[in-house]
């Protein structure tokens, strides 16, 4: 049930008939700002007026006649809009369909047979995930869920950062600065110590730049398969992967299909370089570096091999595209990575194009802005990144306090606090346009009012509480009800859910769905304050309202689920 598409189709048919094959101008079917103009408005007559050289109102009137349908009332409005108001009969019968769909409401199969790679939550080994990894995780996970709901095969990969000179530096520091008898401390607290060690190593290099050569040398040894380096590196990978999986679980992310580290592409690299040289796309410079010159396109030089012979980030990404095309035959290959890497992805896609890689045209950098905390928001030393665990701990603690205060009797308060705290953080992120920077603020995120996760969760819980009191209600065809304007508005809004998912998917923008859910929550709140549900005397009307509450609750739950946000039944 996608009324937007139904209208689009019907209007296209009418226009084709009307112009007698003169062609169909681009026109839009949109929800008007002012709901008094109807559930949808189309500008087809305005567009046709240019084509036919006739007054738009005249065309709108003609088209209105052709567009008559039992599902809506259509009228022409100056300067030439077509306004559609859904009939009560259609709205009420739509409720039945939504009710029956249940958890499948909003799902479709349009993506059947197509696979999409979604790459997100790309952690680097030897470091803990921090607040900077949150957006990628949350946006990527929501996209995976949205794609899946539309029948696509969505494959997620973390593309673990486990290769590169920085690990040579870490190896050098570990081998020279950590005494044998102190290594057990690293086993016990790997991240605290490795992070500090890396910081120290970089400070030393800052003072004595030549030291960097040792790091390069250690990485080169690792690339050549040196036993000792390999062993230390494998230990770092092991502890890091454990941490990654633990964090992904704590964030409630869908299981990943792949955790393919950058190192796993090592074996393909020499072939890629050879191929690039053979195709004359790349050149070997005097110092031994292999580069693709993109300076004419203002994309600088893409380095494939550094002068010291080490492989590069771009090279590993080239191998990744090839692997993914071969392994998954992707329809789209999506990288959810922050905006700082847009230059990298432009280079990458351009080089892949020059090399004639299959699938590069379907690769996309889905970029996002930064999330930061206002300074002093957490008791962490200034300049230190905030660990994801610390952020989540604090979210739970704060959510627990809020819930305790609002509802002291609530059972399972600790579990609910986890869901609300996490939901608040995720929603704060997902409700913002992914391209903008966001400053995370606890009070705003955890508020039970306004465009927040807790507000949506709370609205859902209230609807569920009404339904628990109402008991079982069965759908009965309601012959002739007169819907009030708020009921009309609410059903019409619920019906926009499938189109909303479609738009969020097309734009790779979960915030489109979030904005919709917020509107839905606001309208349903308005509805049950204005219209009694349980106290309604008229049996039919009461049943109808209960069903309306049910389908709205379902829509909220399904939508929040696509955002990866839990919906507690009580809070
Ligand atoms: N690990 C990388 C970093 O920390 C991000 C990986 C992005 N994905 C990619 N395919 N390049 O910057």
What's a concise summary of this model?
The protein is of the alpha/beta class. Helix content is 54%, strand content 10%.
Give an overview of the whole structure.
Helix 18 (485-494) packs antiparallel against helix 20 (510-530) and helix 20 packs antiparallel against helix 21 (539-562). The chain is built from 21 helices and 13 strands. The strands form 4 sheets. It has a 4-stranded antiparallel sheet with strand order 1-2-4-3. It has 3 domains: 3-86, Gyrase A, domain 2, CATH 3.30.1360.70; 115-372, 3-Layer(aba) Sandwich (Rossmann fold); 388-562, Isoleucyl-tRNA Synthetase, Domain 1 (Orthogonal Bundle), CATH 1.10.730.10. It has helices at residues 3-19, 44-52, 56-66, 88-101, 131-149, 165-177, 183-188, 190-207, 212-224, 227-250, 269-278, 313-328, 342-354, 388-406, 413-430, 442-446, 453-470, 485-494, 497-506, 510-530, 539-562, and strands at residues 29-30, 40-42, 72-77, 81-86, 115-119, 153-157, 282-284, 290-293, 301-305, 332-338, 363-368, 371-372, 438-439. It is an alpha/beta fold and 571 residues long. The model is unreliable at 379-383 (pLDDT under 50). Strand 3 and strand 4 (81-86) form a beta hairpin. The two termini are 32 Å apart. The relative contact order is 0.10. Arginine (ARG) is lined by residues 119, 122, 124, 159, 161, 317, 320, 335, 337.
Architecture blueprint of SSEs:
Elements: H1 3-19, E1 29-30, E2 40-42, H2 44-52, H3 56-66, E3 72-77, E4 81-86, H4 88-101, E5 115-119, H5 131-149, E6 153-157, H6 165-177, H7 183-188, H8 190-207, H9 212-224, H10 227-250, H11 269-278, E7 282-284, E8 290-293, E9 301-305, H12 313-328, E10 332-338, H13 342-354, E11 363-368, E12 371-372, H14 388-406, H15 413-430, E13 438-439, H16 442-446, H17 453-470, H18 485-494, H19 497-506, H20 510-530, H21 539-562
Parallel strand pairs: 5-6, 5-10, 10-11, 12-13
Antiparallel strand pairs: 1-2, 2-4, 3-4, 7-8, 8-9
This protein binds arginine.
